[in-house]
Amino acid sequence: MINSVIKPGAARGVAAARRLISPLGPVGGVSLRNSLRPSVHAGSATARNAPDFSEPDFLFKLLFNTRGYALGSHRFFMDSAVALLPTPKGARYRYSRLAGVPVMWIGGYEKKGGPLLFYLHGGGYVMGSPRTHRSLSAYLCRASKAKGLVVDYRLAPEHPFPAALEDVLDVYRFLVKNGMDSKNILVAGDSAGGGLTAALLLAIARENLPMPCAAHLMSPWADLTASRRYYRFMRHRAKHVVDWGADAMAAMYVGESDPADPLISPVYGDFTGVCPMLITAGRSEPLRHDGRILAEHARSFGVDARFLPYDGPVHVFQALAPLVGSAEALIERAGAFFIEQLGQ
Asked: pTM score, two decimals?
């Protein structure tokens, strides 16, 4: 069950998050690559909105339970709070650019000639960065025995669709056209990054580029046309994810485009020839529907698409791997899937 015991030694990270945002109050400016000016609507943050730090999903409640805060403030919370999650021992990071796009490399777990984990971070297409996902992506690299590459794609609303997809496709194209064996590439993403992973696979197929070995989608946001129906239905189950406004994030990302475009909502795409996928989601989280439907849809095109639901409402539960043992176990399952597909 999700209500797992927090790992020994994780209390310091919880305490650091408590100091960061308790009491919740106005946040000042922060220099981020895709940042809007942070601002706070007067009187919006009250004690009753503060998350319960004893709960495993306290970080997600922190991010999504601050109604009234402007987008820049949500970005600040995500950049500051999620970045507090400890990284696994041995992880090394460096930053560079590929095809003009900022990327973060993760080392420490790979073998010579081993696979590359091509990671796309979540954040509703409007927030998040490689830095916010340093922990989650490194845990997945360790489980997969892979070197990591996290793409710092452009965010909406400053850069609506197709900017994010263009960035990740440019980096993937650069890799395969400069000697990287696509069968040694593993693609993964969480939430919006999971949806972007599916969109990337569709774009790779459309361009007849070499397909990666396999993909792992964690709680993918794969149908931006259905967010109202799903989120109203699930509001009582995962209120902290819903309150800030999935519809608002979708509108920022979609812009003037059609939300039913398969490169925005991959559940409407043609998955012919796409690589095997492992899709995970909580049994009672809002995006469980997207994950299940995406897996069923991909299987209708002959894809080996596996859907693995886990107990509970926590969105992208794997992000809590430093704190909760069962979250780390999910990452180990994904690593085993990747190693199986690589034939190792």
From this structure: 0.82
